[in-house]
Amino acid sequence: MNSSGGDHGPKRWIRGGAQNVARTRIFDVNRVAYRHPLRADAKDFYVIAPPDWVNVVALTPARELVLVRQFRFGIDEFSLEIPGGMIEPGEDPVATAVRELREETGFAGARAWLLGAVHPNPAIQSNRCHLVCVEEARPAAALDWDEDEEIEVRTMPVDEVYAQVRAGRITHALVLDALLLFAPHWAKIKGGPVI
Amino acid sequence: MNSSGGDHGPKRWIRGGAQNVARTRIFDVNRVAYRHPLRADAKDFYVIAPPDWVNVVALTPARELVLVRQFRFGIDEFSLEIPGGMIEPGEDPVATAVRELREETGFAGARAWLLGAVHPNPAIQSNRCHLVCVEEARPAAALDWDEDEEIEVRTMPVDEVYAQVRAGRITHALVLDALLLFAPHWAKIKGGPVI
Fold first, then answer.
1. I need a surface site. Which of A110, A123, A166, B130 has the fewest CB within 10 A?
2. Nearest C-alpha of chain A: how many angstroms from B94?
3. Do B34 and A183 make contact, defined as CB atoms within 8 angstroms?
4. Of the partner residues B26, B119, B168, the one whose CB lies closest to the CB of residue A173
5. How many whole angstroms separate alpha carbon A13 and alpha carbon A172?
């Protein structure tokens, strides 16, 4: 079904000037003027602009995933997640993933490859989050936490991670994305359906 | 493995005062003072505070999902998504989902139930997104778009939706979350593994 398409479909708005309205360590907020191609007046929209992010599905030889538990200021609560972080300017997403995994958890792997990339929120946020798989992950290095990081590192059997998601105990949206894209790979390793 | 736990685990920071630094139609940005329990000085963290959101996995009798394609200001590009929107004060998430589905696409279903809820970003954002399944969805009502909404409505076989995700053509993080939590239900309907 296609209730509207072609000339009747959604139009590409024309981007005008942008003004910064807030600048934080993690993201900027910009006010951007957009004009609909069939209307005269521009309208302001607010866009959250962080650098690109990565997160990491790190699989151990025992078929467990490396998880981190930390206090999260956004929700004023603890959160159980896979490791992740911000991409430095010019850094390759897979390299960021390997670096963040090592710094946050001390784990290093034998193979690292891109599962895919998502937009955390196309409506109001400009960046992407790259989802990376690291295989043969083993404890290998000392921890090197960023300021204000205080992290409990644990590993959990992969199927138990999916069960924790279904039970609502792992709730970070970008973690679920990585687990969705990791599922076909896990099904191959495991030799059966995942979820 | 538990490299740090108990008294050595991550501490709960103590929330102090908050100040609004930006207010938009879709979200506020607040500066919140937090103090680590073992440190004297407080530190500011920035929190994006939108109302809770919903999105909707709407399954038609022909086993297709209802999708919407629209121009998204955050990424300055078109995006193919499942329907969704903001919860009004006091509104039940399932009711919001049914309302948004009807307003954005004209579809209405026979059963609506909660797949789960996620945090779009625990690190920097306070709200939740509730993921709702609507079954037996059929065209039933006139469209009722919000101002600035201009939406192409289409349906797509469920397996093709998962294939589009794997191919990187559906990239909205919260859409992937809904599809991950919908997967076990779809496997039951379909009688086989999904992904």
1. A110
2. 17
3. no
4. B119
5. 31
A94-114: pLDDT as tens digits: 999 999 999 999 999 999 999
What angle, 0 to 180 degrees and rounded to 10, lies between the N-to-C axes of helices A173-190 and B173-190?
40
Tokens of A193: 């359906």
Q: CA dihedral in degrees (B73, B77, B83, B86; nearest 10)?
A: -10
Mutate to test the interface with B, among A121, A153, A166, A186 (most CBs of B within 10 A): A121
* B48 to A172: CB separation less than 8 angstroms, yes or no: no
Tokens 């509207």, residue located: A4
Q: Report the complex ipTM.
A: 0.94
Residues B32 and B50 sit within 8 Å (Cβ to Cβ): no
Residue A174: C-alpha distances to residues A117, A146, A178, A190, B133 (Å): 10, 20, 6, 23, 20
What mean pLDDT do residues B106-121 have?
97
Can you give A106-170 as a three-state secondary structure string? CEECCEEEEEEEEECCCCCECCCEEEEEEECCEECCCCCCCCCCCCEEEEEEHHHHHHHHHCCCC
Coil, helix or strand for A101?
helix
Instruction: State pTM to two decimals.
Output: 0.94
Q: Is A51 helix (H, G, I), strand (E, B) or coil?
A: coil
E strand residue ranges, B87-128: 107-108, 111-118
